[in-house]
TrEMBL record:
Biological processes, Gene Ontology terms: negative regulation of DNA-templated transcription
Keyword Ribosomal protein: no
Keywords per UniProt: DNA-binding, Transcription, Transcription regulation
SMART domains: HTH_ICLR
Residue intervals of the HTH iclR-type domain: 6-69
GO molecular function: DNA binding; DNA-binding transcription factor activity
Taxonomic path: Bacteria, Bacillati, Actinomycetota, Actinomycetes, Pseudonocardiales
Annotated IclR-ED domain residues: 70-253
Protein's recorded name: IclR family transcriptional regulator
Species the sequence originates in: Amycolatopsis iheyensis
Gene3D superfamilies (UniProt xref): 3.30.450.40, Winged helix-like DNA-binding domain superfamily/Winged helix DNA-binding domain
Length: 253
């Protein structure tokens, strides 16, 4: 359970973020209360108020909550300024076709990464750690690791001093372990997640930079361990870096 936000705005924002992570199948009030650290009556009251304005929607058959139509309309307007996925889709498609693996595009939002695009390659065995809408803290999964690694040391130090990744994701996400993977990522230019979130599900990622030179997005490949042997990781890393560099040039242009 996360620490519950104090302000009403923070509570609403937390509920909407939590609901976006469940969007494919919806979420119950209890699940959203658990994810946000809110009391169930508080979560229900806020969800009902959001539903009255169209920001969330509830299926009356099973009680599941979903993001509502008003958010779609607002998102269409906001996308005119912020949406970069139309540029990223070509990179994701090329990676999926060239490797046969599942390819992704994720964006940094504060101290998290959010998966925006997924495309599966031809290889029949999939990894479902990442999906559109999935959120992970920086330093977790390959996208979060590569973005964290490309931040200045002072930002990395400040972030790792205030978060406890190991309590949610295990000892492999202790500060010393994350720092060791940051060093490897900086050396290679791309990150590797050797099945640390789900055993046997590997991922690799390269950062995409905004006009300020900050790591704002990531391109990722995921698949089963047998497809990520050392010799192939070099090949996959080169492909990721090529696409990430090309996309960076487009987005900075």
């Amino acid at each position: 359970m996360s620490t519950p936000p104090v302000t009403i705005t923070g509570r609403i924002a937390a509920l909407l973020r939590a609901l976006s992570a469940h969007q494919a199948g919806g979420a119950t009030t209890s699940a959203l209360a658990r994810d946000t650290g809110l009391a169930r009556p508080t979560a229900h009251r806020l969800l009902a108020a959001l539903a009255s304005e169209g920001y969330v929607d509830r299926d009356q058959r099973d009680g599941q909550w979903y993001l509502g139509p008003e958010l779609y309309l607002l998102g269409e307007v906001a996308a005119q300024r912020y949406d970069v996925t139309h540029h990223a889709r070509s990179s994701v498609h090329r990676l999926a076709v060239a490797t046969g693996e599942s390819a992704f595009f994720s964006a940094r939002r504060g101290s998290e990464t959010v998966c925006l695009i997924r495309e599966d390659g031809a290889f029949p065995i999939r990894s479902f750690v990442l999906y559109e809408g999935a959120r992970f803290p920086l330093g977790v999964v390959s996208a979060g690791l590569v973005i964290l690694a490309m931040l200045p040391d002072r930002e990395v130090d400040a972030y790792l001093s205030r978060v406890d990744l190991s309590s949610s994701f295990g000892d492999a996400h202790s500060v010393s372990s994350v720092r060791a993977r940051i060093a490897l990522t900086r050396r290679d230019g791309y990150s590797v997640n050797p099945g640390l979130v789900v055993e046997g599900s590997w991922g690799m990622a390269a950062a995409v930079f905004n006009r300020s030179g900050e790591p704002a997005w990531a391109l990722t490949l995921t698949g089963v361990e047998s497809r990520f042997r050392e010799e192939r990781r070099v090949e996959l890393g080169a492909l990721l870096l090529r696409e990430a560099h090309g996309l960076t040039r487009v987005l900075q242009g």
